[in-house]
Automatic annotation (TrEMBL):
<dbReference type="GO" id="GO:0000346">
    <property type="term" value="C:transcription export complex"/>
</dbReference>
<dbReference type="GO" id="GO:0006406">
    <property type="term" value="P:mRNA export from nucleus"/>
</dbReference>
<dbReference type="InterPro" id="IPR015943">
    <property type="entry name" value="WD40/YVTN_repeat-like_dom_sf"/>
</dbReference>
<keyword id="KW-0853">WD repeat</keyword>
<dbReference type="InterPro" id="IPR042626">
    <property type="entry name" value="THOC6"/>
</dbReference>
<dbReference type="Pfam" id="PF00400">
    <property type="entry name" value="WD40"/>
</dbReference>
<dbReference type="GO" id="GO:0000347">
    <property type="term" value="C:THO complex"/>
</dbReference>
<feature type="repeat" description="WD">
    <location>
        <begin position="204"/>
        <end position="245"/>
    </location>
</feature>
<dbReference type="InterPro" id="IPR036322">
    <property type="entry name" value="WD40_repeat_dom_sf"/>
</dbReference>
<comment type="similarity">
    <text>Belongs to the WD repeat THOC6 family.</text>
</comment>
<dbReference type="InterPro" id="IPR001680">
    <property type="entry name" value="WD40_rpt"/>
</dbReference>
<protein>
    <recommendedName>
        <fullName>THO complex subunit 6</fullName>
    </recommendedName>
</protein>
Amino acid sequence: MATEQEAAGGDARSWDEERYRKSILQERELRCRTVFRTAFAPSQNPNPDILVVASSDGSLSCYSLASCIASMSQQLDMATNLRTAADPLSADPLSIIPAHKGPTYDLKFYTHGENCLLFSCGDDGRLRGWNWKEILISEFIGNLLKPILDLANPQHEGPWGALSPIPETNAITINEQEGSVYSAAGDARAYSWDIETGKQKMVFKGHADYLHCITARKSSHQIITGSEDGTTRIWDCRSGLCTQVIQSGRNLKSKLSSWVSCVAIDSSESWLACGTGAGLSVWSLLSYECIFNIGHYAPVQDLLFDDNQIVAVGSEPVLTRFSINGATLSQLKCAPQSAFSVSLHPSGVIAVGGYGALVDVLSQFGSHLCTFYCRGLDNYS
């Protein structure tokens, strides 16, 4: 029987073809796996506690940030002693569930009332609501945990009675006061659902192409959607009608149009930021005038407001902070080579997720608290 040392030295007698094949596939899958969304879980703790991650393998997973930061600090100490660079952690989640068939694209928390729900959406066209307490008390759940809400985008009848493929659900937003969840779908439509009954309330039709993003303007009973057609539309939630079309994807200099990948509004709901394949623009929601438009060689893939500043990430390993007037305030290198998600905790901590199953967690001062790989469902099956 060959020893482990002999095997490490290449002794063919201990060769395990199946193990080698599995390791190659896992390495390839890890390199290609993508984190599409991160969100800080609601907590009484003033410091960030749990980060929830939506991945391209269809999973929802929860990570203890305190554990990840402690492990990263220990690894950095060892790397310093050995004079080597510390690699990102391969972090074990507190719990992980197979949420969707195909990638999980978005997740949002619904915290109105006593029961906290975690909503997710994905490539299978499903919009699902999970009991957050049940997720927390379990480890790998597999198919044992069923969603308490399971909604599907309707199929639309075409010529000769043909049904379209089930359109993927790409983004969701929630209005707790109304008890509604809104979804942006690949069939160029947005949908409104009643959280208590699970019934569809409204369909928003008007875009000419695939929807990438959606957000709620709660004070005005509106939602805002961004599309592959290069426009951002504002909708009245009570009538289902489009009240404003913003050409946010149009480059003012070249007159060319690009898709709208992400939208965000500030806490006063007076300003709208739109990220596109060609750059970033900010609009007044009072006058619908463009405040500034910045062309960029790398597509913007997610953004958010941090008080009067805008934080954006995209298809380069950089986290950029802009002023409300469009001035670049800072740029920080982040771990994912292409970032699809940026999340902000009330304490100022930021999480960036993206390509390679990587999540980078940064302090409010810009230092890297931890960087970790998200382990996929294949590690727990």
